[in-house]
Input
Amino acid sequence: MTKHREIAAAVVVDSAGKFLLQQRDNIPGILYPGKVGLFGGHREGSETFLECVARELHEELSYFIPQESFEPLLSYEGPDWDQSGGTLLAEFFVARDIQTARVTVTEGTLLVVGANTNFDDFQDKLAPSAARALKAYAERHATCYGGSALPQRLTPENLPRDPARKAGKSQHTRKL
Output
């Protein structure tokens, strides 16, 4: 029997323009343990994809984002990227201007990544859905960077700083 999944997730951008990603727990039994992913999850019952992403982000970030704050990014229907022989229906959104200091991650670890990061440099660390959504985001916003998507390399000099960690509030934040 073919398994069908329906998911919603978001590229989350903080008020400084940095990406808030999920460093997945490295435990057996979950999809892509230890990989970098987006916040989001599976649809429940008759909820819409928008209702799903708002609920999932509230659960995973302990931070409420109103549904009207999500921008549509990418829709996908086809073979499941994660489960051989399965099908996937997915909607990806963008949530902007999130206050990082108010986020408390409940699953995995918060990974704060600079706005000018070249995600090609760590494709092998990204879960497939995160790679596709971040690529769509980069392509959509390429004109913001003079025609080339997110060109600057992530170096020790431009690593993002986590304001919650400085304030001693975040135990589950990692910087790449």
